[in-house]
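User: Can you recover a sequence for this backbone? Please restate the input before giving your answer.

Assistant: Of course. Working from this structure:
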């Protein structure tokens, strides 16, 4: 649209969160949860874990590592007191300006600044009543110069995020200018309260390495991407899921010496993939250059707006429907997945093709009302049998016991699941990715077990 009270160019209708259903490919529907709401949820969950100690107003000052562990120096921001924490490993989840990454000397590769953008959170309880466009989650606002701002609903009632899309050079907006731009976006004078103003840089960067000795990177410390597509939090959580079971395996003693090396091999290509796609979404969103005809109240102006709106709406669908990005990521050439020689499905950001090809996410299927096959994954390796009993799995299970690898076997009598899972035996990692599959036990089960735990194979059963 040209403003909330101006011309509407296009619209993508979606179900409200109350009415939205989960897609066939997942038991979970899409959720929208702003950071100011998500952070307390994450904090409460973390605080409920016996192994977790939360330290607020504490910052990392420096760290060193040696052959046996990492020593971190931390400072209490209130008192200035300093102390040390000794740990086996350190994971830098400390954001785009990561001290951990900088200390390791790991550079970022890509585009340092796509835009210098300013986010303004403002409160206006009656914003919806001030225009005729109805309730929407996101408004994209175009002027003759192109896409210059967006307005996004924060809580669905009275809080809104106004984003001023800048250029590739730093720009500080005055308070007067911010007020003028908000009123331009809405298209009229109105009362509102500005809650926060936050300049930020939209980047397209990935760390050159995710791993150095006993120190690893995750989240924004490892990759910085445009929010266009909402890939950032999912990508960071995927990092944590991949890394967590591997750290647990090493600490529990069954993880091999190369298991943590696989974190970089698996996750860094996904970082590049998702960062590229997010940047491409941003370039699509800012691609129109309408010119003055956009605002002309003439038949020519109306025809131009209809054509632009139809074309732009179709372009933007590429960002709205990205199940391939969210569920179709897979660990090609992973050193801890046993390849079966099959060809990979196309990596289409808009289309997810469920498959059990090693390295891919194990597909979702309902086994009974309220019981999903994904419920079987998460703490141990899960060996699934389709149309076979436990005897078919015994060789793999015995090899796992030899190496103390935690593994369960589940026989599944479900035709739809058997068809989707493609093989009679499918071995799924704790993170839900397929490690191996076949219609019978492998010729050398121990070699498979050593591969998936990141250990060199020595051929010995004892």
């Amino acid at each position: 649209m040209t403003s909330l009270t101006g011309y509407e160019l296009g619209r993508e209708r979606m179900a409200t969160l109350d009415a939205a259903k989960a897609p066939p490919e997942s038991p979970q529907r899409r959720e929208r949860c702003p950071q100011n709401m998500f952070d307390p949820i994450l904090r409460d969950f973390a605080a409920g874990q016996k192994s977790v100690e939360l330290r607020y107003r504490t910052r990392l000052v420096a760290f060193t590592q040696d052959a046996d562990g990492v020593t971190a120096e931390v400072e209490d921001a209130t008192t200035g007191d300093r102390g040390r924490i000794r740990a086996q490993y350190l994971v830098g989840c400390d954001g785009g300006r990561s001290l951990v990454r900088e200390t390791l000397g790991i550079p970022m590769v890509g585009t340092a600044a796509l835009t210098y953008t300013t986010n303004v959170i403002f409160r206006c309880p009656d914003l919806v009543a001030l225009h005729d466009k109805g309730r929407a989650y996101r408004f994209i606002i175009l002027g003759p110069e192109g896409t210059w701002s967006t307005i996004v609903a924060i809580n669905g009632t009275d809080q809104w995020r106004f984003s001023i899309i800048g250029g590739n050079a730093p720009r500080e907006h005055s308070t007067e200018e911010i007020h003028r731009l908000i009123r331009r976006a809405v298209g009229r004078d109105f009362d509102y309260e500005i809650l926060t103003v936050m300049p930020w840089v939209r980047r397209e960067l990935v760390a050159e390495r995710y791993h150095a000795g006993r120190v690893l990177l995750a989240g924004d410390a490892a990759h910085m991407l445009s929010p266009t597509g909402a890939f950032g939090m999912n990508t960071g959580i995927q990092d944590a899921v991949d890394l967590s079971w591997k750290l647990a395996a090493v600490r529990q003693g069954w993880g091999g010496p190369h298991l943590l090396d696989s974190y970089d091999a698996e996750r860094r290509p996904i970082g590049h993939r998702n960062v590229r796609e997010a940047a491409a979404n941003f370039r699509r969103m800012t691609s129109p250059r309408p010119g003055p005809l956009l605002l002309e109240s003439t038949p020519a102006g109306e025809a131009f707006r209809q054509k632009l709106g139809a074309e732009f709406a179709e372009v933007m669908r590429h960002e709205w429907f990205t199940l391939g990005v969210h569920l179709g990521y897979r660990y090609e050439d992973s050193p801890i997945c046993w390849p079966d020689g099959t060809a990979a499905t196309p990596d289409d950001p808009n289309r997810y093709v469920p498959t059990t090809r090693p390295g891919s996410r194990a597909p979702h299927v309902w086994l009974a009302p309220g019981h999903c096959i994904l419920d079987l994954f998460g703490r141990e390796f899960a060996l699934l049998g389709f149309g076979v009993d436990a005897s078919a799995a015994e060789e793999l299970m015995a090899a796992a016991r030899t190496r103390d690898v935690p593994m369960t076997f589940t026989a599944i009598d479900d035709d739809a699941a058997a068809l989707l899972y493609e093989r009679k035996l499918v071995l799924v990692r704790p993170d839900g990715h397929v490690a191996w599959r076949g219609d019978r036990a492998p010729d050398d089960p121990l070699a498979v077990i050593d591969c998936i735990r990141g250990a060199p194979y020595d051929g010995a059963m004892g």
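That completes the design. The first strand starts at residue 58 and ends at 65.
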